[in-house]
């Protein structure tokens, strides 16, 4: 069907059919769903009729080929014009084969593997009947109190943009119409949802347009440039107006300036939330503001269903604005080939074959290992197979390692640390004890753990936050481990045996009481289905750690937000004698995070030498080529992430002390050396000026090259 045919179809639609097309409801509302019929009460409350449901445009949260085929079949029996439903779900870091959480994926700095993971997630979702995933989430994050940092690839707009692009390509492929193993991507949450005041979810976001364009918008733009078919609005305000009713953001910027012609969907209930936000007096006004702002689909509330008709009848909005929104939705259905094949990839038999297949699990294992970050190692890792290991802690045998946004993944499918270690060593070499729960424990549990520890040569302490402690609505003001776990480590520490801490968490934690009482720390995040295997691979050195932090680990919560690309201030701490009081500093803690962005250790050592820029000046026409030699100087193979940062010494507005401009992840055998080359062009030096123009300034710059943001070698250059 081409656009004209779709327009003709719209001409045949009644106004109620159009409005229903803009509505998205959860699975239980639909005939054929396994929960069918449980929803009469909620329907009445929402003020919607069976007729509206029969004409609804899309479904939230359905999964499984059998159920989705059935719902579609029932729908098409009753839908007058035969318009198929769109099925949308959150397949954020895997469908059933769960990959590490996105913050971990960001820490892999492995864009190709991230793309592969999105491709697998899409394949599993598509064969199970899903058409659209609510991913990637690309919100830039700087505040670990916010529970949703785990859904983001971190604190840097360049890194986030690389992953945004890769994930969209992985989900969508290059031909959504014919490649039935792909799903449409929906980049979220537009815009700046990752910057809520105080790290409290859904809270106000307050920043200048310039800062938003500079740091927060690039990753959404990268996702759109990669072809993301949908955009989801954010819950927060942007310059005083909730994103979901924000014309300047959604129409002027997204539609007009960026020419986005795909579908915009509100976040869950966000249209109705315009009322408590205080910009709409009732549901009808909320509907008007959202549709005027360019929101095509209202997720889960029914302001459109109940309000749009009267708005058109009273000439408060034109019917053409509905037609526009309907057209975009029908175009997406067309692109997915649903008019020809409303069941698309949904295939019960193939679903059984490919969902959670061995190959998918293998990639999940690889990515989990690459995403873990070795923060500390006083020579005790990797473990030796003749050592007796005391595996202790609430995560020793826990399968709560998938993260909060893996609702289709089953914990029972997850490999625990114990199971992973068992594949490496025999029972006799492993003493396992829980020690305590995540937030509470008993004396008996503690005693048992101390006993196990005494019988061991080395202790692996598996600690962390359970998955509900981060994720959506998972903000916390204290980001240390719960006290009971700090007590556990303290008691074990008293035994004076080597301690390796493996951390499971969705946010960077305040690691006081952990890093200072251990000899090695491995940040495993929520590693996903294959977590236990990946961790065992790392602990025994079958895989060499190569992850680098995508988000700073704060020294303590008092310095949050803490991030690497800060401004120098007029009184930088290191510019004065440390005795002087009047500099930008805390009196009680350092300014620096405990572990900075880009940081992560390896079991081998690398040397980075012969760094040679092609020139000490660059121009708009002629960029710089920076070459160097990276050598593996240790005795095991490994990967290193070489990072290029730039500082603009004098700007029209203040420029960050460093900004990531490139990175390369390089694998080297022991003794092997390779040339690493970066190209730096003038456009990488552009930034948003006070008039919002995106351009560079001639003048002096410094390039920094290294293996974390603060372990670098630098050289000056000029832009002429
Ligand atoms: C979240 C979104 C998610 C949506 C649908 C909302 O609460 O903010 O990220 O896609 O629910 O499940």
UniProtKB/TrEMBL annotation:
Record keywords, A-Z: Glycosidase, Hydrolase, Signal
Pfam family, one: Fn3-like
EC id: 3.2.1.21
Group of enzyme by EC: hydrolase
Native species: Virgibacillus necropolis
Keyword Hydrolase: yes
GO BP terms in the entry: glucan catabolic process
Record domain Fibronectin type III-like: where: 640-709
Superkingdom of source: Bacteria
A GO molecular function held by the record: beta-glucosidase activity
Record flagged with keyword Signal: yes
Catalytic activity: Hydrolysis of terminal, non-reducing beta-D-glucosyl residues with release of beta-D-glucose
Protein name per UniProt: beta-glucosidase
Family named by the database record: Belongs to the glycosyl hydrolase 3 family.
């Amino acid at each position: 069907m081409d656009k004209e045919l779709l327009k003709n179809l719209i001409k045949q639609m009644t106004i109620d059919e159009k409005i229903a097309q803009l509505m998205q409801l959860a699975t239980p509302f639909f005939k054929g769903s396994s929960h069918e019929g449980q929803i009469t009460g909620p329907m009445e409350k929402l003020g919607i009729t069976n007729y509206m449901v029969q004409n609804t445009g899309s479904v939230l949260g359905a999964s499984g080929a059998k159920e989705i085929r059935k719902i579609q079949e029932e729908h098409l029996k009753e839908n007058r014009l035969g318009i198929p439903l769109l099925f949308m779900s959150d397949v954020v870091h895997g469908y059933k084969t769960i990959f590490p959480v996105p913050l971990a994926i960001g820490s892999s700095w492995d864009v190709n593997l991230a793309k592969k993971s999105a491709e697998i997630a899409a394949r599993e979702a598509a064969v199970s009947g899903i058409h659209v995933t609510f991913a990637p989430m690309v919100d830039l994050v700087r505040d670990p109190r916010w529970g949703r940092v785990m859904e983001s690839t971190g604190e840097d707009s360049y890194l986030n943009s690389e992953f945004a692009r890769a994930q969209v390509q992985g989900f969508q492929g290059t031909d959504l119409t014919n490649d039935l193993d792909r799903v449409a991507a929906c980049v979220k949450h537009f815009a700046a949802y990752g910057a809520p005041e105080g790290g409290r979810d859904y809270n106000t976001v307050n920043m200048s347009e310039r800062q938003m364009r500079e740091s927060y918008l690039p990753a959404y733009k990268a996702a759109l440039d990669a072809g993301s078919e949908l955009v989801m609005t954010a819950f927060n305000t942007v310059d005083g107006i909730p994103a979901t009713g924000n014309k300047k953001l959604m129409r002027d910027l997204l539609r007009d300036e960026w020419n986005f012609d795909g579908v915009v969907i509100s976040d869950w209930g966000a249209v109705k939330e315009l009322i408590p936000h205080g910009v709409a007096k009732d549901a009808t006004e909320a509907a008007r503001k959202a549709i005027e702002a360019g929101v095509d689909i209202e997720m889960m509330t029914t302001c459109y269903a109940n309000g749009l008709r009267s708005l058109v009848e009273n000439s408060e909005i034109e019917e053409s604005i509905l037609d526009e929104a309907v057209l975009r939705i029908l175009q997406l259905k067309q692109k997915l080939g649903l008019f020809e094949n409303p069941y698309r990839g949904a295939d019960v038999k193939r679903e059984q074959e490919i969902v959670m297949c061995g190959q998918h699990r293998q990639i999940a294992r690889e990515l989990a290992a690459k995403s873990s970050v070795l923060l500390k190692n006083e020579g005790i890792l990797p473990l030796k197979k003749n050592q007796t290991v005391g595996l202790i802690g609430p995560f020793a045998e826990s399968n709560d390692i998938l993260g909060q946004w893996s609702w289709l993944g089953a914990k029972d499918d997850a490999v625990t640390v114990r199971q992973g270690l068992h594949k490496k060593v025999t029972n006799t070499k492993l003493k396992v004890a829980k020690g305590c729960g995540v937030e509470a424990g008993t004396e008996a549990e503690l005693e048992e753990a101390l006993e196990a520890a005494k019988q061991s040569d080395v202790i692996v302490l598996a600690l962390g936050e359970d998955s509900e402690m981060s994720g959506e609505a998972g903000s916390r003001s204290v980001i240390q481990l719960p006290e009971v776990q700090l007590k556990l480590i303290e008691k074990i520490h008293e035994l004076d045996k080597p301690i390796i801490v493996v951390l499971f968490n969705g946010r960077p934690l305040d690691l006081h009481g952990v890093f200072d009482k251990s000899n090695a720390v491995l940040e495993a995040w929520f590693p996903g289905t294959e977590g236990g295997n990946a961790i065992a691979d790392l602990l025994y050195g079958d895989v060499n750690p190569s992850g680098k932090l995508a988000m700073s680990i704060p020294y303590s919560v008092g310095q949050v937000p803490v991030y690497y690309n800060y401004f120098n201030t007029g009184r930088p701490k290191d510019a004065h004698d440390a005795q002087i009081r009047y500099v930008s500093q805390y009196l009680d803690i350092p300014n620096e995070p405990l572990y900075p962005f880009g940081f992560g250790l390896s079991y081998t050592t690398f040397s980075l030498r012969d760094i040679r820029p092609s020139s000490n000046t660059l121009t708009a026409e002629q960029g710089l080529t920076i070459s160097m030699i990276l050598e593996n100087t240790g005795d095991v193979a490994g990967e290193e992430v070489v990072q290029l940062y730039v500082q603009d010494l004098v700007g029209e507005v203040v420029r960050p002390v460093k900004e990531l401009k490139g990175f390369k992840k390089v694998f080297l055998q022991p003794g092997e050396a390779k040339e690493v080359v970066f190209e730096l062009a003038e456009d990488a030096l552009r930034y948003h000026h006070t008039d919002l123009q995106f351009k560079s300034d001639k003048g002096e710059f410094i390039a920094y090259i290294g293996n974390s943001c603060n372990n670098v070698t630098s050289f000056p250059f000029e832009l002429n």
